[in-house]
Amino acid sequence: MATSSRLDAKVPQGPLETKWSKYRSSVPLVNPANKRNLEIIVIGTGLAGASAAATLAELGYKVKAFCFQDSPRRAHSIAAQGGINAAKNYQNDGDSIYRLFYDTIKGGDYRAREGNVHRLAEVSGSIIDQCVAAGVPFAREYGGLLSNRSFGGTQVQRTFYAAGQTGQQLLLGAYSGLQRQVGMGTVKMYNRHEMLDIVNIDGKCRGIIARDLVTGQLERHAAHAVLLCSGGYGNVFYLSTNAMGSNVTAAWKAHKRGAFFGNPCFTQIHPTCIPVSGEHQSKLTLMSESLRNDGRIWVPKAKNDTRPGNEIPEEERDYYLERRYPAFGNLVPRDIASRAAKERCDAGYGVGASKLAVFLDFAAAVERYGRGEANKNNIHNPSDADIIIWGKAVVKEKYGNLFDMYKQITGEDPYEVPMRIYPAVHYTMGGLWVDYNLMTTVPGLYALGEANFSDHGANRLGASALMQGLADGYFVIPYTIGAYLANEIRTGKISTDHEAFVSTEKEVKDRIEKLITIQGKTSPEVYHRRLGKIMWDKCGMARNEQGLKEAITEIRALRKDFWSDVKVMGKINEFNPELDKANRVADFIELGELMCLDALDRNESCGGHFREEFQTEEGEAMRDDENYMYVSAWEHKGPEEWELHKEDLVYENIKIAQRSYK
Amino acid sequence: MEGNMSLSLKVWRQSDKNTAGAFENYKLDGVSPDMSFLEMFDVLNEQLIEEGKVPIAFDHDCREGICGSCAMFINGRPHGPLKGVTTCQLHMRSFNDGDTIVVEPWRAKAFPVIKDLVVDRDAFDRIMSAGGFVSVNTGNAQDANSLPIPKEAADEAFSAAACIACGACVAACKNASAMLFVSAKVSQLALLPQGQAERNIRAEKMVAQMDSEGFGACTNTGACSAECPKEISMVNIARLNREYIGAKFSSTAV
Question: What ipTM describes this predicted complex?
Fold first, then answer.
């Protein structure tokens, strides 16, 4: 197998450890006077977008940033709970850049690019330094130094955190840096704006068409480079832990204008979410993976055991993760924990009314922490009741906000009864294909953070999304964009009167008018829910050839139905969330087909992609390195038509092994 | 129908900022106590679409109480009857079958209505731009552990930093003051060593921007903190007052 001639990853030559430092010192620079004349558009203001926009503005570029929310601070990075990894080795427990690199590649089931991942591990430490300097209030020990905890798929403590609100605190740090630049006039911020297309001129990305979501007006914005930091596409499943507004539209429009889509079928199903409670459900809520540090996951040993969790005696419980994976126990990677939960529930051991849930139990942690407090305070014969009180206080300090959230949503008190959890769609490893510079296959168009495919292979480890978003924005793009912009200093200002802007804007306008004039019978919400059901049933936690083929047929029919029977209320030139939704759902439907196509092409199981035909006798994922050790990069050729290009994955520094957490 | 609660809703409808708004009455059946308040609105909106009516616009995004988008003034209280809970985390089990529920947007001069229950909160972003940051360019930072911060200070800074900028404090205040919001950011950075260099000018500039946005004065009533979904403490307002007065004595910046 050889890499397609259409894909040049541009990974620098030389030893892995020095690729980035050497490249960084040799990448072309743009002098400050020229930077002032170069314009950059940033789509999305989550961790990747906010950090990139702020940093590029600090360097002197003219930046415009866009978000569909009413403020850049509301991007969905804000909801990340558990933490951010960095190879600081503050705990002296054997961590190193190589180990973080190795864990990430292995966790991704050997489907990520070595050069990009090593760079990520290299810059991870600087991210923590930068965030602390910006005033991010990470958790600390009594000595005043930073605290760490463990996350799935690793055996060291390298996760930095701020209670259960790490994403919020990191985003507010990046946002404050962004607002500082907005105040100085170096970033022009466009709130409540949605990117609806990119504009290419002579084969280069030269700007965007955006819609002002308050007035409904279309706007043309030109730039020398466009950065898509628009997040993932988990909402293709309708129910996910993503925010309601999270969408694929920016990435999808770019895809349709020439950006290849990488590994679209690699989606992450997170093992610890609050189970679905009914048909009205609009989204799913994550319970941070950090809970698996202290919580033990189990189901009853007997089928159809309807007793409340706290009434089932110890010997009648099956701690199935500890049983199957003694080395990592409850801290196996997400894909493995999710499948194990599904396996138990499918076998009839599920709990709760729907039987689609397992227990996450803190009783043992409460007791352990309670005893620790007694020792700390020199109390030698504590009563059991006191131990529980002290233990609960410690658990509250660590996870209080998560427990409160659980109680609020389910009406049950997790301090008293074990939580019920079930896997839910959480993250998409796939995304726009990018090279080492984070540039897509369209020159001048970049993708950062979750919007690209690059670092997590077929499965992302916990606390690595925040790391990647900030790595791309703070420490990668500010260097790599020079390789392109150094050649743009003679381009001059780009006119939005160019024919390409006129024609692209017209296409966007025509589509919006079509959406609103169909006036059928079915709301965008209903189409979204239908799509989600197809995707979850046939392209979700387990996939097979027949199901995927059916899904493609069903999605094509759904697409046809949508374009003839969608009902969009309201008008075009006004604040109209229904129209926004219709635009997004239309793109999700097209994406759904590509995801199924990709899943169908990949005749192996790896990471989050589990094809039922390819598993070991014990039910573990069975990779096929000989035939599938490649990145799928799909080129859009027309409606319902794609061409697959392959980037061969070469591992020079890691010994490929069957992933084992036993 | 999933549940058996029936509700009467009085919801503020306003087509844009230049048009006068009014309450509209709606009946909704089949509400389940497990629905969130916003899911109840989703059901209502689907019903309106079926009837050929324009659905109610409201801001929402993460639906897990952290993004700060959702902002409904429910039965006279921002985010409804529960303490420490955003609208999206409020569930229908907090209401009774047969209830009449009144839903309005945030009411404040500095938060003009965009449509129905959606208001413009850009003023908060502008206040942040005035000084809610540490001026540290990317790449300048020293090793994160080179500066120990006592756990108590870090924890207190974190408590202040938990603000989600939803604007409930402004909506709850009879004067529509933004002091709780501003004080939370000023406190967070005043408590940390990283924030010391710009401590004075930050307090001055953020307060000046707050005043210019048209927020009202603070009379220490405390409704802001009582209604805050993140339970930001009034202590922060006291700290902001100290910071501001201290800054005014020593600085001529603003």
Answer: 0.98
